[in-house]
Write the structure tokens for this entry.
Amino acid sequence: MTSEVKDTSKKYQITLKTIFGLEQVLTEELAELGYSDVTTLNRAVQLRGTMRDVYFLNLHIRCAISILVEIKTFTIRNEQDLFKKCMQIDWTNYFTLDKTFAVKGAVFSDLFKHSQFPFLLVKDAIVDTFRNVSGNRPDVNIKTPQVVFDVYIIQDKVTISLNTSGLPLFQRGYREAIGEAPMNEVVAAGLIRMTNWDRKSPFIDPFCGSGTLLIEAAFLATGIPSNIERQHYAFKNFIGYDEQLWEEIYSSAKKFVKELPCRIVGSDLSDEMVTKTRRNLRGLVFGRFIETSVQSFEHVKRIEEKGVVVTNPPYGLRMGDNIEEMYEQLGSWMKNEMKGYDCWVISGSEEGFKTLGLRPDRKIKVFNGDIECSFRKYSIYDGTKKLHKLVDFEKEGADINDSEEIEEKN
């Protein structure tokens, strides 16, 4: 039987799922990769593309957690209607009996008393379809399925998709060691893109933990795909998987660099954390170029006149730190040592932000895991902020008196 996903020229509705707050940077990343005709949704971006695009995006995208290919959309009137319409889908087009599968997704509908029940109905339809065709049924594996079907129901509208990624794309394959409160790699990649870092000036993380921000910064600066070390993708388990096409896409990706285009520097007070960072860097082609040290942030010195600090200090939620004192010292360090830098801090501690003693230029709501956080930019000027703006006005030929009004607004 001809597979529904074998024709690499056929166009599909592709949905790239992401984390709340990263929708815009994902859209910008897609534009950078050549995908400008996209629709930005809540925690997702959609586009039309082929299986070649699916393979390419699974390897190259940094700010998405999974890539879905739409199979079917339809409307239902009740629970049993879902089962009946799923029985009209030939599930044997997508995978074979020797592959395990799972049904996951999200349900926002008054038609179901229990939110998990729709997944059970779809699972039953898949099993019954295989049994009707071959007399046998495939096995379900909830924890580590080889094939995942995504079911999204909003009121009476149902969308069923193939999850072509399988395990979330933040499981890059490069991290051997993690800390007590590790940052999701997709979150790290998204935060770095939010800063509009030029990828040439220094990048500093004085709370580097196990090195996720440093590594994602190096991947971005070098142009090497963040998923270059990842081996497992669900699309490899589909009927019609084109191994030759995948090898062509993978072999054409950048994999090696002789040096970094900028300095990337990380430190942490914990020697255990820095050891974990170095362990994670060990297997990466750019690992030896990233500078790491065991020291408190207060001893980290500015590199060059301009650069960026991106850091994820403790929140006091999991690790019991003296938050107010630490953030007060962090704010003082930024003001005194990081002049000329843009300093970006992500934290779930509002009390911590209050004691920084700095007014943020930007505040962006994001999530780090299940913790609601704020990602804030602090532009540290060499001199007063007002003087800095006067210099900018003079360069642009504006009336200096106009700066007073702008200073008040800031």
